[in-house]
């Protein structure tokens, strides 16, 4: 019997691993794709056997590398699901954005999903499969990181283009827009600033930030038969961030010091308590991206971005 296959790019990061784990519930083989082959292998072995979780090193911004990845997927069985999760951000503000940063952010966050889909489109036609693009609330509203945000906005439109043009083949295409995602990178930031999550959660109606499993469960739903009538949509997974915010944040159970209050009050960047630049300064990687999310950039599967820069952020 032919095995069902799912591809997850940027799979070595927290969000990518969570998505791979969730898709294993209804796929026989999960292809964990990442620029860091060793990290992808480590993630795969942590999830299960080599027969079910297969690691592949791939630069998703390279047409040749993506073509090789598609061949690997085809050799494993029938491709049912493609999850374009890889992403990251460089440029923090429009004024500081250099042409090379603009091109790099668009290459990874917009062109790469196009390359991956194009490489496996015929495989998805054969199974009437599904595409799930991990976008960001940054693609819906202005939260900083302009190049990343513009690319994610483009990704949302690309999602609709696939839905409209490939619907006749039975392919469904949807997107998820995460908000701030609590990943290991943000745990490290919290170690440096114990109030970082407390400062952030007050801006979210659900009074918390997103967990990687929240994103993974949304992917699992959109890729499943339960969503057979859903295509061309963007599902925010942002704990209510894009629904709006209260006139004043909910009171904190742990009063902030005078300096902490000044730090929070001086922020003028969208909904977050800290600007994307401040978030990046607080730690090395965006997993707190409002996906960028201003706050969690996603797993990176592109050469030159191995450190998975996270915007105020994807995917990891």
Distance, first to last CA:
33 Å
Side-by-side strand order of the widest sheet? 3-2-1-4-5-6-7
Give the averaged pLDDT, no decimals: 83
Which stretches are poorly predicted, pLDDT < 50 over at least 5 residues?
251-316
What structural class is derived from the secondary structure elements? Answer: alpha/beta
What's the story with the biggest beta sheet?
A: 7 strands, parallel
The amount of helix comes to: 40-55%
Describe the structure using short key phrases.
single chain, 316 residues, alpha/beta
Any overview of this molecule?
- The structure is a single chain.
- The protein has 316 residues and is of the alpha/beta class.
- Helices cover 40% and strands 13% of the residues.
- It contains ten helices and seven strands.
- Mean pLDDT is 83; it is low at 251-316.
Summary of the model, kept short:
The protein has helices at 14-23, 37-47, 63-76, 99-127, 146-166, 184-192, 196-201, 212-223, 258-265, 276-282; strands at 4-9, 29-34, 53-57, 78-84, 130-134, 172-178, 234-237. The protein has 316 residues and is of the alpha/beta class. Helix 1 (14-23) links the parallel strand 1 (4-9) and strand 2 (29-34).
């Amino acid at each position: 019997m032919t095995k069902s296959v799912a591809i997850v790019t940027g799979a070595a990061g927290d969000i990518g691993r969570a998505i791979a784990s969730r898709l294993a519930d209804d796929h026989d083989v999960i292809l964990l794709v990442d620029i860091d082959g060793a990290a992808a292998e480590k993630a795969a072995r942590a999830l299960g056997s080599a027969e079910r979780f297969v690691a592949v090193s791939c630069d998703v911004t390279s047409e040749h590398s993506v073509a090789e990845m598609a061949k690997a997927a085809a050799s494993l069985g029938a491709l049912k699901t493609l999850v374009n999760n890889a992403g990251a951000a460089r440029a923090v503000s429009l004024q500081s954005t250099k042409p090379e940063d603009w091109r790099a952010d668009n290459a990874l966050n917009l062109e790469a999903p196009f390359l991956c889909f194009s490489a496996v489109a015929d495989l998805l036609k054969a199974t009437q499969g599904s595409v799930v693009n991990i976008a960001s609330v940054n693609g819906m509203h202005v939260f900083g990181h302009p190049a990343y945000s513009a690319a994610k906005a483009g990704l949302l439109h690309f999602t609709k283009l696939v839905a409209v043009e490939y619907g006749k083949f039975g392919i469904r295409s949807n997107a998820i827009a995460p908000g701030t995602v609590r990943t290991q990178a943000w745990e490290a930031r919290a170690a440096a600033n114990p109030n970082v999550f407390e400062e952030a959660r007050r801006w979210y109606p659900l009074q918390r930030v997103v967990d990687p499993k929240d994103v993974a469960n949304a992917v699992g739903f959109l890729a499943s038969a339960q969503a057979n009538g859903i295509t061309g949509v963007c599902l925010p997974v942002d704990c209510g961030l894009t629904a709006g915010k209260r006139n004043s944040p909910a009171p904190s159970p742990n009063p902030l010091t005078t300096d902490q209050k000044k730090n929070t009050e001086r922020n003028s960047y969208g909904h977050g308590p800290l600007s994307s630049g401040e978030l990046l300064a607080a730690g090395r990687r965006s997993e707190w991206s409002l996906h960028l999310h201003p706050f969690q950039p996603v797993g990176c599967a592109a050469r030159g971005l191995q450190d998975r820069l996270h915007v105020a952020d994807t995917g990891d």
